[in-house]
Amino acid sequence: MATFTTWGMSGTVATQQPGDEVYGLERVEFWIDEFNASVNRFREDSELSRINARSAGTFSISPLLERALQSARRSGEISQNLCDPTVLSSLEKLGYDRDYDELLKTGVSFSTSTSPAPGPQSWSLDALEHTVTLEAGVRLDLGASAKALFADVVVNELAQRGGALVEIGGDVAVHGVGPDGPWVIGVASSLEIGGNEPRISIGGGAIATSSRVTRTWTLNGRTVNHIIDPRTGLCANGPYAVATVAGPNCVDANALATAALLWGEDASYHIAQFGAAARLIRDSGEVEFVGGWTREEST
User: Fold this and answer.
1) 63-78 and 143-158 helices cross at what angle (nearest 10)?
2) Would you give the DSSP letter of residue 294?
3) Which of 87, 94, 198, 262 is a good FRET partner for 237, with 20 to 30 A between their CA atoms?
4) How far apart are the first and last CA of the chain?
5) What is the pTM of this model?
6) Average pLDDT over residues 183-198
7) Rounded to whole angstroms, how far apart are CA atoms 19 and 250?
């Protein structure tokens, strides 16, 4: 198992054949560079930033940005548009206008009023012309879905050599088995791993965790988070603090985990309707299971 750090998050790559981990890290670094050049909104020279700076119009896009936008569209479709890339203005109004590591150092002492996001009707993809069209004033943030896509892309590439696992910031994509059999994953409620988390076995697909108690910062003396409700422009403040969802891939699992923090008491219903399984943690610490969540083992 090898570790890496990017985008203010830690990550892990593991392979069935230990000798393939060096190759795994090489592919991780390659795709980090590719995603940075394509979808990193904190880089002024990224393809996405250049499009956002122009704000409106129809733009030709690279294959990777097109794939990332398709993933964002897919995330919206399965989350009733609660996963919405047009929330960028709301994120910035809450202070998330810089890299997260810098944000933690400085905090935010100002804010402007928030408003609903423009929504999915404000942008469109043309798969034949390989273009994206944005209405006036619309800018996109692909952070969550792009992170999930990154895990899917890397694990699918490593799968050509055998079993593989890629984890980044709470999203875990796996293929096949590990050196000792099925992959065993610790299910944490925060980004700090203590070693005594419940563990589950997984033989394929993905596990994604979304939390409104991690990746937080201070705004005018109060704690806010990065999960934005596009209906209001405000951050998530529902009954669930953490949602972990098992799905066929990281993009789907991440979308459902994020939406679970915005669906409120209806989260279990919507996740079950999709046919997924989940582990939801309320603010009180009470744990609820949805669908066929696999048996957990204590450590």
Assistant:
1) 110
2) P
3) 198
4) 20
5) 0.93
6) 73
7) 25
